[in-house]
Design brief:
Chain A is α/β, with parallel strands linked by helices and about 150 residues long. Chain A has helices at about 1-25, 50-60, 90-95, 130-150; strands spanning about 40-45, 65-70, 75-85, 100-110, 115-130. Chain A is elongated, with a radius of gyration of 25 Å. Classes of the chains: A alpha/beta (about 150), B alpha/beta (about 180).
Chain lengths: ~150, ~180
Amino acid sequence: MSHRKSAVCILLACILIAIFGAQAKDAKNNAPSEKIPSGAKMFIGPIKDGFDTFLKDAIGKKKVPVELVASRDQADYEITGTAETQKAGAAKKIILGNWHSREEASITVSNIKSGEVVWAYSVHEEASTHGKRSSAEACAKHLKEAMESK
Amino acid sequence: MQSKRGLSALLAIALTVSFANYSTHAWSQAEDKSAQDEGKADAKATSNIKSAPSDEGQLATVNNAKIPAYAKIYIAPMLGGFENYIIAGLRSKKVPLTVVVDRSKAEYEISGVSESEKAGWAKMLFLGSQQSNEQASIKVSDLKSGAIIFGYSVHKGNSARGRQSAGEACAKHLKQVVID
C-alpha cells in the first residue's frame, strides 16, 4: 500500500515538474495572434497628398468590414501611412509612350490600445491607370483579404 | 519498517527532482548550443553577404548579436515615410517581430535614412528604364543598453518596385539576426 503511495507521489512530482518546466519555457515572447475583428472602429490619420480621402472611399467601395470614425478617441484601430504620386513627365510620354502616373503607398494598421502594429501593406504601381484611386483600392482590397483570411 | 519506506519514497522523489533539474539544465544547454550553432551558421551567411558583390546591400552585425523572436520593436519616422515600407516589408517577409508605435513600450529601435531618385529623361532615352534609384540604410539599437546590434544598407539602381523593394530588402536581411 505504501509502495503505491510512494509511486503516486513520484508520478505527481514528475507531472508537476513537467508542467512547470513547460510553462517556464512558454514564458518567452509569444507570437502576436491579434486579428482585426469585423466591424472594428477604425480611424484614418492624415496621409500625404490627401491619400486618406482616397483610402476612405476605397474602403467603402471594396466593402471592407470596418466602421470608419472621424475621431481617434472613438477608434480601436488607426491607419497611418504615406503615399507618393509622380505624374508622367514629357520624357515618359514621348519616349515610353506612357501617360499613366507612378504611384507608391504604404499603410500600417495599429491597435490604439496596445500600440502594436497588426497589419501593414505597401503598393507600387509604375503606370497606375487611375492614379491614387488604384493604389488606395489595392490597400483596401488587401485589408479586406487579411481580415477575412485570418 | 514504515519509516524505511517513507525514507525510500523521499529518496526516490529527491532523485526524480534532481534528474528532472539535470535534464532541464542539459536541455537548456543543448538549446544554447544549437542557438550558438545557428549563430555560427548565420555568421557564415553574414560573411558570405559581406564578401558577395555589393550590388544590393551591405550587412553588418555587432558581435553576432541576435534579436529574440517577437521582441517589441519601434520604427522611428524616416524621410518620406520609409518606416511604413519597412513595416510592410517585415510583414511580407514574415519577420517574427512585434512592431509597436510607442517607443517607450519597445525593446529595440530601427532608425535610418532613405532616398529615392526617379528616372530622368536620359535614363529613359538611353537605357529605356523608368525604374527609380533607391538607397536606404537602417540600424537597429537595443534601447536598454543603447548598443547598435545590426546595420544594413541597400542600393538599387533599378528598383522594380521603388521603396517597397528597399523596405523588403531591409526586412529580409533583418530576419537573419532574429532568432526564430
